[in-house]
Fold these 4 entries.
Entry 1:
Amino acid sequence: MLRTGLRRIDGEVFYIEKLHKGVYTLTKVNRIYCRRKSQYQLIEIFDSEGYGVSLYLDGTTQISSADEFIYHESFVHPVMLSHPNPREVLIIGGGDGGVLREVLKHSCVERVDMVEIDAEVIESVRKFFGPSFSKVFEDPKARIIIDDGASFLRSSTKKYDVIFADVTDEIGPAATFYKMEIFRAMKERLKEEGIVCLQSLGIVEHVGAQSRLKRALKDLFKNVGVYVVYVPSFTGLWSFTYASDSCNPAAMSEEELRKRISKRGLDLKFYNPEVHDLLFKSAYYIKVLEEVFW
Ligand code: SAM
């Protein structure tokens, strides 16, 4: 098996990441900003030639400055716009601040609680990704809580309009996150007309995971669905799974989306009502890949 991580090849530095069985990526690294082992994981931040400043946790790409807006806008806006008036939002994980930034763009939002297990991820992002990333953590509507998302869900009594889970891919401190017990706890923390949404992994690397997650959530919620976006630095299509008894992002009309985007004053680089439609249609790849690889 190929040794992953930083390697010198032909006089240049590359980062080798394992994507899935027998498939690796090779990313040219121009500068190493940070390599530190926190209590929970190995945190690495590099300047990569192709994708700019990039964060890796335990050897897995988390975000890159060049294309993180594609991931974060696609994750957040279909769900936020499907709720008629999301005022209180919970984010589990999301230490890079991207989900928080997009949620705060909705003018109706009054409070966002973000529960991140690893304070060192936030510190490192604030230090090396520049002011556009660090200022979001200072927004007066945001409360940053350093805690395990699972224990927070069990112990909190507060209810939210929207809950996002942006935890790492079933590795490190997130290894036990994608479980029925956690989904039940999320439902407990949701207001009646609320909606939850989880980043639900790459559809090639984690073939089958989205259908398993959908089946589990269907036991608890009326409307469950998956949408998918291509993120270049992830080298593939990434999925998000939502669940609600009342909202349904897949059933939003173009007219209503436009109305809400304008009313909430959203300033976006990637997401719009045409992209919304594309995200849901692209979920077709999941079916195809499951037939080929599963
Ligand atoms: N976009 C991402 C991806 O591709 O996986 C996720 C980004 S975000 C950096 C993931 C965050 O989840 C990390 O900062 C990690 O520390 C946090 N995390 C992992 N397990 C957690 C848990 N149990 N509770 C709270 N945060 C957690």
Entry 2:
Amino acid sequence: MRQNITLREVGLRDGLQIHPTFMQTHDKLAWIAAEAASGMPEIEVTSYVPPKLIPQFSDAGPVTEGALRIAGLTVSALIPNLRGAQRGIELGVHKLNYVMSVSHTHNMKNVRRSPQESVADFRDIVALIRSQPDQGRPVICGGLSTALGCSYEGRVAVSQVVKYAVQLVEAGAQELVVADTVGYADPEQVRAVFKAVLAEVGSVPVAAHFHDTRGLGLANVCAALDCGITMFDASLAGLGGCPFAPGASGNVVMEDLCFMLDAMGYDTGVDLQKLVAVRALLSQALPDLSMQGALARAGLPRGYVVAAERQAA
Ligand code: ZN
């Protein structure tokens, strides 16, 4: 078997943040539990933002607490600022995903700060985390949005991505996630950006977050795999988008990504059939949800043997 890949479900945050209908807390928790039971190792369950800003996340507390009761699951949440970090620490979440945009305009729209101000905020967040007792400190992940293009500014320079990646790591990021927030990337660009980032940030794990807006999501995953990336964000049924990125659409479809990786011989630890079955919970809970997914539509190829069984045979 090829090396392990760590998948991270982001649909509850990236997908639900733009969905107009509130998903009931018990439905969110049922989704989290079912996907964790399929073998998903990490789920970004919510975002610690003011409920007035995004009412979908007004139940961030109970969703986090419920998810933390699931044994073996890494529970993460998005934070835009220090207040979000405080909330996450109080709740005992495992990982905080801080987000800033590489492009100035998107960062101003999303968090009303310049990227440089966002790096300064990140230093304060790391200081807050380090002031906590060792036990139960959350892992802090630095996220770089619009790293492969911006719907306001167009192309984003590789040197800018590298600059902020290095600054976040120097400030104390234990992980990075490099995101194509608006789905502008192509595989050649992915290779250029990830190689440049990996060359500068050393041993810090780097995850990739792609949107399938222009149909290149899985191709971009392959390009990132070629660079040695082993952590990927994706969302069930390809949910996703950004409230401040006009024209952005969903993330890479998690089921299709799992199938591709399994077919290529990578170990994701996720049971494909169980994962696809989780879609039924979503469509029952939110009938107005637009769901994508080729594996769910077409099914597994006849006689398909999953990677773990091919290896055992
Ligand atoms: Zn996204």
Entry 3:
Amino acid sequence: MSTPTRPSIVVLNGPNLNLLGEREPEKYGHATLADVEAMCRECAERGGHDLDFRQTNHEGVMIDWIHEVRHTAAGVVINAGGWTHTSVAIRDALANVEGTIVEVHITDIHAREEFRHFSFITDVADHVIVGRGVPGYVEAVEFVLSREGVPRRP
Ligand code: CA2
């Protein structure tokens, strides 16, 4: 008999987030993306879920990843970085995700430059977390866990 697979939470990171912890610590803190992954994994596994954590600097790769997981992920947590403010294509891909969507930003995008105030993702997301630092990612994973079994759309 095959081992049943656990539901998965997918955490997707956009451009430049691979530099987390290396530059601009006054804005983004000292934690690296590997640290963020470990925090999210611990939380997801405590909640009985697998964690799939990815980062890309290529928009088409991000869109392919969203398509890949759209029917299978219990939830998608996304920090789309700069694409948040520019990409209709990422928004359109997310609109086809069946699981819970949480948009995360480490900084408070509404307290920064005006060009960061608008997000193409917000109105296709179930929940938005901004300005909580890297613990915001863990809050996002917790939100997905809290929504397990709750139908997302009528
Ligand atoms: O606050 C966030 O999480 C952002 O999504 C980060 C993006 C920015 O374009 C958004 O407006 C807000 C930038 C990601 C760049 O990440 C770096 C991290 C450390 C050092 C350099 C870049």
Entry 4:
Amino acid sequence: MKILLTNDDGVRAPGVWAAARALRQVGEVFVVAPEMEQSGVGTALTLHSAVKAAPAPVDPGLPAGPGHIEDGDALHPVVAYSVAGTPADSCVLGLESLVGAVDLVVSGINAGSNLGWDVVVSGTVGAAIQGYVRGYPTIAISVGAVHNPQFEGAARLLRLLARRLSQAPASSGFFLNINVPSIPPERISGVEVTRLGHRSYAESVREEGSGTDKGYRISRNRPVSGDPQPGTDIWALKRDLISITPLGIILGHREMTPEIEGLVSGLSAQLLDRPD
Ligand code: MN
């Protein structure tokens, strides 16, 4: 099994290497990830300049180039690239050039949850989308803490899922957004297949400086309170459940069609019969 591993926290982030160690027991792992942290850049692609990619150390502290990751007593060869671009750039370069076709695309393990409507802002999900649109089985995976994240539960889950997929390959591509509580695995309550909740984090804006130095700092640090609906990803994570949400790329909202037909009714006659 060939696995492309990417993320938005950067190629040196501990989460991607926790995933690499877990997945190396199931298949051949290729890490292609941004040189710098890129959380929150969503699906952004670099289209107006060339994107550089260079061999990266498989462990921060080791020299760049193909290397090995330790796994108990075993040493596993891993190839890693550092991309001077976005998470989505990294996934595209991996699949189209540096690595080629794979059996599984994984983005993560992200430090911090990606729940509900946050998936459209998330660089972790933004990278994964590039796997899904190419028809690959794709997993975006995050743990619910930015500070002192505990990756063990998420890494174990990844290994188990990858093993299942290597034994019984999926008949078609799919896209899973997984959120794992950042707690020791033995305290996790279970696994729940969920649907996306609504808004989970809101922005706050702080003014900084004055005169020509004046700026506005945007932070996504306000959890939107309220009781999350049962069955949603937000609800599951609050209950210390692992949330697995199947995603598609459907932003259309058919329920709104009648109301919008009312809004535009007669508009084409008005538009085509302009008095000027
Ligand atoms: Mn991130």
